[in-house]
Amino acid sequence: MAANVIYGKDLAEELRQEMKQEVSTLHEKGVHPKLVVVIIGEDPASMSYVKGKKKASEKIGLDSDLIELPEKTSEKELLTLIERLNNDSSVHGILVQLPLPDHIDDQKVIETIDPKKDVDGFHPINVGRMMTGQETFYPCTPYGILVMLKRAKIDIEGKHVVIVGRSNLVGKPVGQLLLNENATVTHCHSRTKDLRAHTKQADILIVAAGKADLITGEDIREGAVVIDVGVNRVDGKLTGDVEFESAKEIASHITPVPKGVGPMTITMLLHNTMEAAKRIHSVK
Ligand code: NAP
Question: Known catalytic residues?
Answer without folding.
Answer: 53, 97, 120
